[in-house]
Amino acid sequence: MNPLNEPFAAGGAGGGWDPVGIAVVGLGYWGPNLVRNLYESSAANVALVCDMRTESLERIGRRYPRVRRTTSFADVLADPEVEAVVVATPIGTHFALAKQALEAGKHVFVEKPLAASLAEGAELVRLAEERGRVLMPGHTFLYSPPVEMIRDLITSGELGDVYFVSTSRVNLGLHQSDASVVWDLGPHDFSILAYWLGQIPTYVTALSRGCVIPDTPDVAFINLEYGSGTIAHVEIAWLAPSKLRRTTIVGSRKMVVYDDTSIEPVRVFDAGVTLPDPETFGEYRLSYRTGDIVSPRVDVVEPLFLELNDFCQSIRTGTAPRSTPALGLDVLRTVEAAERSLANGGARTEVEGASVTLP
Amino acid sequence: MNPLNEPFAAGGAGGGWDPVGIAVVGLGYWGPNLVRNLYESSAANVALVCDMRTESLERIGRRYPRVRRTTSFADVLADPEVEAVVVATPIGTHFALAKQALEAGKHVFVEKPLAASLAEGAELVRLAEERGRVLMPGHTFLYSPPVEMIRDLITSGELGDVYFVSTSRVNLGLHQSDASVVWDLGPHDFSILAYWLGQIPTYVTALSRGCVIPDTPDVAFINLEYGSGTIAHVEIAWLAPSKLRRTTIVGSRKMVVYDDTSIEPVRVFDAGVTLPDPETFGEYRLSYRTGDIVSPRVDVVEPLFLELNDFCQSIRTGTAPRSTPALGLDVLRTVEAAERSLANGGARTEVEGASVTLP
Amino acid sequence: MNPLNEPFAAGGAGGGWDPVGIAVVGLGYWGPNLVRNLYESSAANVALVCDMRTESLERIGRRYPRVRRTTSFADVLADPEVEAVVVATPIGTHFALAKQALEAGKHVFVEKPLAASLAEGAELVRLAEERGRVLMPGHTFLYSPPVEMIRDLITSGELGDVYFVSTSRVNLGLHQSDASVVWDLGPHDFSILAYWLGQIPTYVTALSRGCVIPDTPDVAFINLEYGSGTIAHVEIAWLAPSKLRRTTIVGSRKMVVYDDTSIEPVRVFDAGVTLPDPETFGEYRLSYRTGDIVSPRVDVVEPLFLELNDFCQSIRTGTAPRSTPALGLDVLRTVEAAERSLANGGARTEVEGASVTLP
Amino acid sequence: MNPLNEPFAAGGAGGGWDPVGIAVVGLGYWGPNLVRNLYESSAANVALVCDMRTESLERIGRRYPRVRRTTSFADVLADPEVEAVVVATPIGTHFALAKQALEAGKHVFVEKPLAASLAEGAELVRLAEERGRVLMPGHTFLYSPPVEMIRDLITSGELGDVYFVSTSRVNLGLHQSDASVVWDLGPHDFSILAYWLGQIPTYVTALSRGCVIPDTPDVAFINLEYGSGTIAHVEIAWLAPSKLRRTTIVGSRKMVVYDDTSIEPVRVFDAGVTLPDPETFGEYRLSYRTGDIVSPRVDVVEPLFLELNDFCQSIRTGTAPRSTPALGLDVLRTVEAAERSLANGGARTEVEGASVTLP
Questions:
Q1: Which of A353, B109, C55, C198 is 20 to 30 Å apart from B300, CA to CA?
Q2: Alpha carbon distances (Å) from D204 to B351, C219, D217, D354
Q3: CA distance C156 to C158
Q4: Which chains touch B (3 or more CB pairs under 8 A)?
């Protein structure tokens, strides 16, 4: 069992400290999942839920009759039981809600992306540091066991140099009214790549199209270049014949296919190319190696549960969460570079302040 | 059975005209497949095979003892039985060999790509017209039943507008010593896209890396923009954990997955998004439609057999082959634009003389 | 949406009658699923849950704090709010619990199989008729949209004569302490086959082995013969490298693969064999036909929800449920024949009272 | 590379002895494959081919113009260049042809099954011993690298005790005019099981149906019981929506899926059940173990090539071939038991002379 998981399972022993009083704001598509996981964790206590739509509140009420409900964000800010606020509203509202919560002395968890711009995100980070409060962006995939396993394969050197990564995250739906597919799905892949590679790209080149709603891109092809030489392609779309969550990582020693829809989400291929003696280099007598394929056993655990526990633990113990504010900003840098590339007709675009993110 | 196939099966009735006397030049990886298909067709007579490597000639000799063999291309040019020359040598030699053959009055089939540059290709086309000889580039996939079926789905309007195409053509091997993956695998996808869409891209943006041999790209991510609004992504690589030949075509009415490694190579998805009444447009209340999925029956026939018969038929009857010289030039235009994009650090690059190719 | 589903969704309009007051008895592996579906249906009201294990009761209590709980079955029988009892306890207790509930005037839903023997089952049926109460065996798969779709394909004649059926229902776990795999998994396939074919087998031949626990079969191969000429093979196991839920139905006109683990659970193959003119029969010049393959769109709905609503509807309206007591007895006849075959060293064994079940 | 393969590749060094002069008799569906593999092996010399149909001879002649052809079996027997005869005719003729060939002093390879009855097979074995000639049944799957790899997994103990085996070998076609599916496909699975388990079954129970041609079974479900406790199910059919070649082997320590249609033909699952301390046995607290899944690299080589080389090697060196006459007889024993079971209405039937076959 994942160590992040153990102490917090419902009814379990807990981490030795009191559950964190939490308000969940925004009960649309994703909010109920946050409520459910917090409800089942011994690390948290869902004190309050907040949404402007009474219908959404009632639906939660039927399932969790003991949880208090409100349509007013002011109630959230004023509630003494609420130590931390979980924000799961449309992207455009992230900044205003998180800012008010931090100013009210609350810890804040914001669903990805952290904010609607790098400038907004940086202001939130500054504010959280100033007030000594935890600010955590909800990059859930960092808590996915397959993603973590692949990070271990990379950082341990088992894959060798990462030559390139190619990823497809497509399915039919859900068009967002307030954001392009780049803002909606891009943060998933950008955060995973940052976590795996320990860096963000230096250049981004993007091509997109608003197929269904003009000016709202619903498909994008994004090429990324990293300082290390690694290149990557990210395909994201709300239009697709079938759901794909497939990432290929090609290393100099081994290769990996990560398919989040498969019961074998990680497959490690002992395959590659061997260059002969450099003296005979000119002859290009490469030999290809194809060995065993291994599907390692992967824990089955809900990443969101681990992520929310990490948030609570960070509040109680002061340790940094895996999904750091710095990573949240790096994701915003990548999204903004992709958007600038699109605005400039697909020009190759430098990422602002690209630098190594993680150790 | 495909109509191109019928009259030429080995021992079949034939097209009512004499078999075309053919020489196959180049017996490396692909040449033996050309010999085998020509040998089994009643439309052709393999008069001569030519390769500088006696070992390759001997291997063919063991299998086809009656076929004459030579190490000298001059023998090919001088042979009165040889009406047509099939060129399957490294790309850099296509121009010189095809030029000599045309000048010697032979019809010429050149494995893809037609030549190593647009200028070379254009010179060959000019020469063929001048001499009244058939010149045909070997874009085999145009003769693949799944590719043809998808062209029918597109041109009949069954898919609606083609929003975008995404394609992956990757596997482990075979690094070429004289060409990048863009010259080696790119022509397959560029010719298929030209055949399907009836146009070539106006802009190309490419990213590549020479992972194994520096300066010899073995992976490339290529974004394509078409005048019609269609966008496409082409991923090609000689490095991959497993073979992929997967193309997704997303149309406004239906979607298709073409997987050339599957026994169900074409799958048609009756899926899409419905926009509501334009007046309520601002509300984005899209509805998603997912209906039946159909794998239509596809003929099992070797595309190369059909292609070579089309070449012979073109020689005997004067009809244009499906794989026209004009399409061959359009493929070269696309490859060159991709190469220019790479040479310019991944800049978005205009395709020279982009224009509609096919009716 | 399935018509059985529509009026009962949580918060929906309901069927125009009061929700049925229900007690769920047995909160082991399956019981909580029954509670959850009843809780979300407007057709039912979970008045009481009952289990001897206080731990199980507490777990339900955390999730549904308003539901009353008891460790005493006598409380269930005495409770005036309880109109119907849902029994989800080990097989050996089905008879005693259902009998008491019927005698107390309750309607009864019993998880499959209806009882631990045909004699017990028949006694329950007699008692329910005598008391005028609904008795319904929980053959959930009869409410699975793919199963229903295949029944339509069969009864409409689209498949032609059903030549044979072959089915595998295997995975790793869950060994039952009180029953063999034949009693545990067999009823699923036997009920599906009865529903599809409208008959039960006339002969059963079985082979099994208790691999892990001697004398507790955890794998069985069961051959079935039907009066219509159809033959079937049922493979069931608690030991398997991966989960399989795959059934092949071969008809004289079309064939179907039903895979309950796939997102395309029903695939219809327009394939078969054509016999030539009977006069030339001796020559066996068969022609094979392989046409399109269609994956029809299948509703995504939880069968258990539909099944429990059918139970409530039967109580309120007096209509027979799809899963009739007669079908429940036929399943017991088949299980008992398989067990007799095993007890007789794998002898071919007649099914008691085999007769057409369904119209 | 498989050691059986190495010395015999076309043009290779050979085993240090002269190629065996061979006649191939029967050029129907399978015969041309035999000719092609013998033609490419340095261990053999195809001296003569024989078929009553001149059309079949001509087709071979076009491909192998140097090979002599005859319509008369007497020519085969009389030809001094022919040291060995390969029989690939309908089953009913195996005995007569093999007998004459042995009596004429030839070595004989007979496509599976060895003969049309155990009595015939035994007579051939007796005759071969008497004359000191090699007699080899063509059980090709014994030379398939996946089959060999699984045998190693079993005999090395890596799988533990083999609890059970379940196998499906079905596809659409090819109905045989002179044999049931039991005689046609059964020998494949019966020979593989004999090779893996080192024994033949003691009891067989079969159910079949002639769906298309009455009295010619084209589907059969066959249950097998072995003295070791292992049980097996064999499903074979000429009628199926899609080709299946899937075998599951469940051992006490590991499990294997062998899929001959997959590019990963062998998959080893580190999965199983752990029984607790025997003292607490009554509680059945089993724990399930699911670990890594490994697809070991498997040689890609044509089994038929290895098999024919083994035949030649046996002739030249006197070593027993892997596919022994004894195994051929054991397969006939199993087929005959299945046929007797069918003739007796599906009764459980003892296998004649069941005994351990292989070390």
A1: B109
A2: 70, 17, 17, 11
A3: 6
A4: A, C, D
